[in-house]
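Supplementary Data S3. Sequence and structure tokens for construct A.
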Amino acid sequence: MRAAEGGDMVDTPLVLPLGEDAMLVRFGATLSQDANLAALRFTRRLDARPITGVVEVVPNLVSVLLRYDRHQIGFQRLAGEVGLLLTARMDETDLAGREHRVQVSFGGETGPDLDEVAERLSLSVEAFVAAHNASRLRVLATGFAPGFVYCGFHPEALHVPRRREVRPHIPAGSVLFAAGQTAIAATDIPTGWHVIGRTQLRNFDPLREPPTLIEAGDGIVFEAER
């Protein structure tokens, strides 16, 4: 999803049924800082005040999915509980997550699109890497594939669109760049993002509990591997 330049939050979050046992609470039609933070705040509220009958909470870039046991709670009652949480006050400091420093090997065989990205931004490779690593990013969401991490937002001067063609396969650990964000692939996947490097970090291990290390709201600082 591309980051919106302006505010795109809906005036009132949309509460939508998904099948017989799921609800989607959507805070925006396109990705923006405000919509993403609203989804994160709501997720934190659910963590702090669990709703009886809700069996899974899955935050996304601008929405939160709630799976529930319809034998314990129905959609209308859940919608009422959600409405109360949406109006609850919350300490903003509760949004802060853990910080992760991620070492990246930029360019070369591990980052075949780095030169093209730097050229499109009228920067040298060294200047692009320095600008890319200059800011602490926030984990906007995880998902798409197991352990996949979306990080944002980069300043407008570093925005480039996705590639026109999809690569059918990139390896786990690939560091991806597009649409004002950097992403980290935790498994082998296809992608239309620019591949700018690779990290030894693997944010998914099915034998680990929990299987992922990074979650939405955490901070990410990228560093060039030495």
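Construct B, processed identically:
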Amino acid sequence: MIIGLVVAGIAVVAFAIGLIICGDLLSYTATGNKTMDPAGTPAGRALVVYNPGVSGAAKDAAATIAGDLQSKGYAVSLAGVRSTAAANTSGYDVIIVGGPMYFGKVSSSVEAYLKGLKPQKDVALGVFATTGAPQFNNDDIASFGKQVASLPCNSMLNKTAVTKTIRSGDAGNVDCSEFVSAVLQ
């Protein structure tokens, strides 16, 4: 009897975790917005949009990316994927979007955001994914690149979006810095 209850409890917890991940429920908590001004005259305006994910690694990566952009002279809006600030993309020179990657696939909220994104012609666009691990699976990286290669749909962009998979831990800081440099080139 006790073993049956333990097994049932484990099954319920596993089902709930699967529902949270597959249903991308945590993206609905991403409604915040933070403005970060540079120390001096802005070099431009940047929007960093994120889905926090289960572990919060994507939100941490977005904050690091926003800080890197700010240190390079950009006025930055750090916005959750479900925020009103994320919906208004006009007037930005740089737009970066990211979130967690589950089972080799970018989160549905990030994919939906990119599909609906209508950036201006000269916007530099970057897309990142976090795995919550210090190592990557090469198949996941290839899958991520294919998923975002054609996004945003019907865009007027002059160049392809820069993509990057961000590792967890100290390696993630290096990944974020390299990513920002590549987006700004």
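The longest strand covers residues 94-102. Residues 158 and 167 are 29 Å apart (CA to CA).
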